[in-house]
Amino acid sequence: MPPHGAPGPVRATMVGMWILVKTVWNALARLLRHFGWGGLLPVVAAMGMALFGVLPWTVALVLLALIVAAWWPAVAADLLPVTMLLAGIWALMVAAVAGSVANWAVVSRSITFIGPQRLIKKPPGGPGKPTAVKGPGPVFIKGPPGPVTVKGGFGAQSAQNLQAVAGPRGRITVLPWTGTLHGPLFGGPGGPLKPGMPVQYSVARPVGGPIPVGHPGGLLPTGLLVPLALLLLALGLWLTPRAIARLRDRMPWLVPYLRRWAVENRWGVLLIPVTMFGLVVFGVRPWTVAAVLVAVIAAVRWPKVAADLVPVALVGFAAWGFAIASSWQSLAAGRNGHQAIYGAVQVSSPQMALLAGAEASVFLAFAAWLVPRTIGAHARTLLHPGPDPELAGRVQQLTETRGHAIDAATSELRRIERDLHDGAQARLVALGMNLRAVERMLPTSPQAALALVAEARETSSRALSDLRNLVRGIYPPVLADRGLGHAVQALALDTPLPVRVDVDLPGRLTAPVESACYFAVAEVLANAVRHSGASHVDIRMQHTDGTLRIEVCDDGIGGADQAKGTGLQGVERRLGTFDGIMAVSSPTGGPTMVVMEVPCALSSPKIFSS
Amino acid sequence: MRVVVAEDLFLLRDGLARLLGAYDFEIAAAVDTAPALLRALLEQRPDVAVVDVRLPPSFADDGLRAALEARRQIPGLPVLLLSQYVEQLYARELLADQAGAVGYLLKDRVFNDDQFIDAIRAVAGGGTVMDPEVVTKLLGRRSRDEPITRLSVREQEVLELMAEGRSNTAIAQRLFVTEKAVSKHTTSIFSKLGLAASEDDNRRVLAVLAYLNS
Predict the structure, then answer these.
(1) Which residue of A has its CA nearest to B36?
(2) Do A339 and A445 sit in the same domain of this protein?
(3) Which domain holds residue A452?
(4) Which pLDDT score is estimated for A376?
(5) Measured CA angle at A461 (ends B20, B86), to 5 deg
(6) What is the mean pLDDT of chain A?
(7) Cβ separation of B85 and A472 shorter than 8 Å?
(8) Which letter does DSSP use for residue B214 in this model?
(9) Are residues A258 and A227 both part of a single domain?
């Protein structure tokens, strides 16, 4: 409620504001409830319209965002933080350069560097009347077209023609120096304009439709830009960890893969930010944007080449920086357009020139530091080709898995030896002793001998049972008879849980692979029975493109951890011997899904001949 | 009674033949490979066959496959399979045709010759004989099953023996109770499991096994 006694109009405005805020809030809440966070994606996309105006591509972006949010809300939710961060950063950049020259095309061949400006709303004195320009620095003339005369004894000239070129919104900059100045760093005249001094014009014309914020054509008031950008950044940063966690759940391989890729190709990846720096130095031009795109492609496709280009680009930037620092005045006079901006520095004074020089030196130093790590390293491998790192990695992996295989085989043999020693072997000894006793007793007490014989039979039965269990642990009979598919089906039948088995294996695998896969499935299934509390399990086996893929899913409580369970680690090592891999997805609360993949060949099915 | 014996190890084949001979079985053929077994079964049409699951040429489940093939061509041909191990998967395949006259036993059961000969005679007579180990596994699988847990301990014992293929008389002897008591138990079991009761011993076994196997 508005404060009591507020004057009518104020009260009406406040009520109106209140209703507006409430309506917007309700709409947002409904959007979030209905589509989740992804529903905000079109809102963020609409920022493009606010920043750049209603253009075909900004409208297309909003439509695209709407489609994604409606059809794939999960994808929209994943994209949201990234777009928020990008929009926030972009808005901050626009706010920083608002009023600078990025969106102005230079028509005349002189600089449109913006220093301290004075805005002259209308040619003072009206059309046709002379404009007095005082002091140094560019003069910003804006207003309806009309003859503007720059006067003052320093080469009076009518600006009418220039204005015609610049268009009604164009601007004319009058610089107090000529382009012929020399002097290393701080030279050149400048200072107050004096009668008789030559003056150069720079005429810029807006290009590319509406001009960014703060200029006529933008939709967003400049004042709102920075708070909005900060809001977007904060929201984006807050949402990012959630999106990453979701992504990690859905594609567990993605994050480690990206991390490994980024670490392996870190110098090549560096090319992208370095070329982006070109956007700041040379402005957003077709060729600077193209350079960034090429850098992205190169970093992905040819990371080594990209890495070699990084120091080269840095040296180029450094050279450019030194050139600007040494002759900023003559450059400003307009030989090469508006390039007196160097990174974070706008070179308009000797101090700034010094800063630009320092910046260039940092680039040069970084380039020098990078050379041995990129170009040098690549040249060294070219001149003295050492062991192929890929091959070396493979050798190490093989050494590791061979070690595991030998360990596993040894402990398996030890287990068999122990089982035989304590089981069948011991029983056979007992059997032999029993029979010897029978031999002795038979003549004297045949009744007692008979009882001993019955005992001997019992012992041989136990020995057989021991051997049976042992054999099942070494190589399950059904696996030997019929192969992996049937063996897993038999395993499912022996499991005290409903297990659905879906096999697509049109042939047999090699015995070692079959055995490894069988025991892997057995271990995972045993885990599901012991720990998951599942009510049923699904097993799918499929052989496509030279790879056997086995999925074991249960509807239990989840929480299986590959890093903790020795059983799962054993499975991974067992499969690793055959270059197989295992992935476990088991969020708390379930379900658990274990995927195993083993590259292997399929032989033709064995046909029973009778 | 004419019997075909298939076993690839000479000692065992010889022992089996001698055992069967002692109980007045006529050995129609004693073979050592799966193709020979199939030929003998189809040509001799014995009253019963005693077959080792693992036979040459591939030393896999060739014996089982040959027996199944023979039963496909001559439905209900009585076959008793012997093996060093029993698998539910194979038991299922043997029972799939619902024709009865099959047996599946561990080789150890030969030690107890009375029971073994009884089993052969039961199979020859069209009965179904399952190794206790198979039955235990079947029951283990159904351990979470509601109806099974409602059976009393004695009823579970009776169910197990029934699933092994024993008649009421045999069950009564084994459990030291009267046949009447056994038949009371079986009626109770059938009603608790929701199975249609049957006086025919063989159909009764098949119903129980089908229930456990489902």
Answers:
(1) A610
(2) no
(3) 391-474
(4) 84
(5) 80
(6) 73
(7) yes
(8) -
(9) no
Q: Are residues A335 and A399 in the same domain?
A: no
Nearest to B111 among A461, A606, A608 (CB): A461
Cβ-Cβ contacts under 8 Å, A482 against chain B? 60-61
pLDDT digits (tens, 9 = 90+) for B40-62: 999 999 999 999 999 988 888 99
pLDDT band of residue B79 (cuts 50, 70, 90) is very high
Residues B170-208 have pLDDT tens digits of 888 888 988 888 888 888 888 888 777 776 767 777 777
Q: Is A95 part of a structural domain of the chain?
A: yes
pLDDT digits (tens, 9 = 90+) for A537-576: 999 999 988 899 999 999 888 888 777 777 888 888 888 8
| Domain-ending residue, one of B130, B147, B167 | B130
Residues near A457 by beta carbon (within 8 Å), at least 6 away in sequence: B111
Whether A266 is covered by a domain: the verdict is yes
Q: What pLDDT sits at residue A196?
A: 38
Q: Is A486 on the interface with B (CB under 8 A)?
A: yes
Residues B150 and B199 in one domain: yes
Beta carbons within 8 Å of A174's beta carbon, 6+ residues apart: A133, A138, A139, A150, A199, A200, A201, A202
Question: Any idea what the CATH number is for the domain that residue A586 is in?
Answer: 3.30.565.10
Cβ atoms of A457 and A428 within 8 Å: the answer is: no
Decide which of B130, B152, B174 is a domain's last residue: B130
Please indicate if any CB of chain B lies within 8 Å of the CB of A22.
Answer: no
pLDDT value at A340 more than 70: no
Residue B113 contacts A where some CB pair is shorter than 8 Å: no
Of the pLDDT bands very low, low, confident and very high (cuts 50, 70, 90), residue A321 is confident
Same domain for B145 and B103? no
Are B179 and B92 in a shared domain? no
Amino acid at A292: V
Size of interface A-B (CB pairs under 8 A): 63
What's B93's domain CATH number?
3.40.50.2300
Retrieve residue B111's tokens: 């030690």
Q: Is the pLDDT of residue A472 over 90?
A: no
Selecting from A465, A490, A495 the residue whose C-beta is nearest the C-beta of B87 gives A490
Q: How many domains does chain A have?
A: 5
The label of the residue with tokens 């933080």 reads: A81
Q: Is A296 domain-assigned? A: yes
Specify whether B15 is located in the same domain as B83. yes
Tell me the pTM.
Answer: 0.53
Q: Are residues B41 and B123 in the same domain?
A: yes
Establish if A604 belongs to a structural domain. no
Out of A80-94, A261-275, A479-493, the most confident range is A479-493
Which residues are registered as beta bridge partners of B104?
Answer: B81, B130
A478 → closest Cβ in B65, B69, B89: B89
ipTM, 2 dp: 0.82
Q: If pLDDT is split at 50, 70 and 90, which confidence band does B211 have?
A: confident
Same domain, yes or no, for A236 and A198? no
- List, in sequence order, every residue forming a beta bridge with A120; answer none if it has no partner: A141
Instruction: Give the per-residue pLDDT at A14.
Output: 80
Instruction: Kindly state whether A603 is in contact with chain B, defined as any CB-CB distance less than 8 angstroms.
Output: no
- Cβ proximity of A118 and A259 under 8 Å: no
Angle CA(A289)–CA(A290)–CA(A291) in degrees, nearest 5? Answer: 90
Q: Which three-class secondary structure state does DSSP give residue A562?
A: coil
Does residue B126 sit in the same domain as residue B139?
no
Cα A62 to Cα A31, A52, A87, A232, A304, distances in angstroms = 15, 13, 13, 17, 37
> Is residue A39 predicted with pLDDT exceeding 70?
yes
Identity at A402, one-letter amino acid code: R
Range of the domain at B101: 2-130
